[in-house]
Amino acid sequence: MYAIVRAGGRQEKVSVGDVLLIDKVSAQPGESIELKPLMLVDGADITVEADKLAGVKVAAEVVKAAKGPKITIMKYKNKTGYRKRQGHRQPLTQIKVTKIG
Question: Where is the signal peptide (predicted)?
């Protein structure tokens, strides 16, 4: 059994026990969060209707806060001596899916 959930502006395919990185959520490590299911696949049964999915809950436990890879932003203008270097690391949250159903 697996589900497609909306997590942090993206859609992720999750099963029980999966560990994944999503955009930062305001929950502490050890707390439980609920993800919104968009599709549920259980063997040959596929559920996509909103009224049937209203009763389905996908629970996940927050494992830890994390950061994405470093991205370097360079700006340069020719013949003027203008150079600017900037870096960015996106804050993420690592979660583990505990229950689908």
Answer: none
